[in-house]
Amino acid sequence: MKTFWLSLMTLMMLCRTPTAALPLRTSDRPTQSNLGLPEADQEFAEEYLQHFYGYRSKSERKKRSADADVDGDWNTELCEKVQEMQRFFGLPPSGELTKETLAVMKRPRCGLSDVERFGDTIRWKKNTLSYRISGYNTSIPASKVRKIFRAAWKIWSNVTPLKFRKRNRKEADIVISFKNGDHKDGAPFDGKGGVLAHAFLPGHGIGGDVHFDAEEDWTFNSTGSFNLFTVTVHEFGHALGLPHSSDPGAIMYPTYNFAPSFDLQLSFRDVKDVQHLYGISPNFDSLFSKKPPPRTPEKCDPDLSFDAVTELQQETLFFKDRFLWRKHPHFEETRITLISSLWPENVPANMDAAYENVERNLIVFFKDHQYWLLRQLQIQEGFPKNISSLGFPSRIRSVDAALHFRKERYTVFFTGHECWRYNEREEMMEGPPTLIEKQWPGIPTPIDAAVFYDGSVHFFKGNIYYKFDSNSKHVVSTGTTNELLECKQADNEI
Ligand SMILES: [Ca+2]
Ligand SMILES: [Ca+2]
Ligand SMILES: [Ca+2]
Ligand SMILES: [Zn+2]
Ligand SMILES: [Zn+2]
What we know:
By secondary structure, the chain is an alpha+beta fold. The protein folds into three domains: 105 residues, no CATH class; 161 residues, Collagenase (Catalytic Domain), CATH 3.40.390.10; 186 residues, Hemopexin (4 Propeller). 25% of the residues lie in helices and 24% in strands. The strands form six sheets. The chain has a six-stranded mixed β-sheet, covered by helices on one side. Strands 13, 14, 15, 16 and 17 form a five-stranded antiparallel β-sheet that branches. Strands 18, 19, 20, 21 and 22 form a five-stranded antiparallel β-sheet that branches. Helix 6 crosses helix 7. The longest helix has 19 residues. The structure holds calcium ion (3 copies) and zinc ion (ZN) (2 copies). The site of one calcium ion (CA) has 8 residues, from loops.
């Protein structure tokens, strides 16, 4: 009880904003209040917010202010900065330094701030730019590094009228180098992990220059930790004047979330932003007519459909491609984030189905013939496994959707026109499948997803959801999927 009151007090102290009406959390949630945090984490978080969100620390504020209430203001500002960061990354904006907020803060990332906006004016005033590589200092062979940089420039010159010329000796607009620790530009590198690289916006001297942390385990294939090409494309974006994007599909998103096999391309957002600065490449249409830059799914898209939907503690998670929306009952906004930002391990994109087993504290993901079991964000040993080990016959190659019944402790799997009842207690299938139309009359098959939402079962097919009443056994209402994500017109314009 004591802990409960303490954490409630912290919340109130921290958040004096309208969102101060925060929920009381039950103690079994894996979130933590700030009080439970080790001091090192608290310090780390403050430094992170100083660096990337323009937060001023307590001592800094004291220096500048004779105000006696520095503590109060400081707590409010800290809370607001945590919320700002949480919104940027699509986390529930509680203002609390939860475990998962810290996990996102600890993701490897770019060294530039997420909140500085430079306006439209910071750009090169010419279309041909020169670059020079000053020192390689990485285990990747120099010839390979040159190739990587050339390919990264091409990514940007494919969509703009810009041209990039390599120089060997003479001064160049953009100087690229690998640096160790403190390299005298006011932004020391931090060794392995953390900040991977940074770049300077267009301008004279150091302007446009790009620095990589020489201590990282750089790679050009899938062996090391960080793919140099991926990070280079991002940093070159800064060298051209682009800020960070909160669109998780953008290459200008600040964290590194890439599987080794990721096939890098600029997103629709990146292309739009860089073309806003420099205009369109004359070859753009011929290069991209067949395969236009991918758009991040939008919750206001009237045709929005989902791959899978599941409950997760109090939240409802809507999965689509590499992304998900998180709907928390206590926060109005639902924001998009990356699956890989929530589960850094190799959780599949474009998944088929997902459900939460509350009692065993597990989340289960399905893709094709495999399924993954996760506890506390960790993939359990021995997974992924073949779905046949759940008791499916070999003719079943994938699962369309999964619906978990918390009280009764069973899960229904949907495959085509059939559904299967799986007993979670016995860990076995309860007999042969039945037809979906018998169990859930009025539901079109095959379905995309199913979930308990707002007290009743919701099925999803295309851009429509079907709310099903289990007592009267029929569909009581339908609507478009994006109604559930609270699409507001303003969201469209962000
Ligand atoms: Ca580093
Ligand atoms: Ca320069
Ligand atoms: Ca599905
Ligand atoms: Zn960056
Ligand atoms: Zn530097």
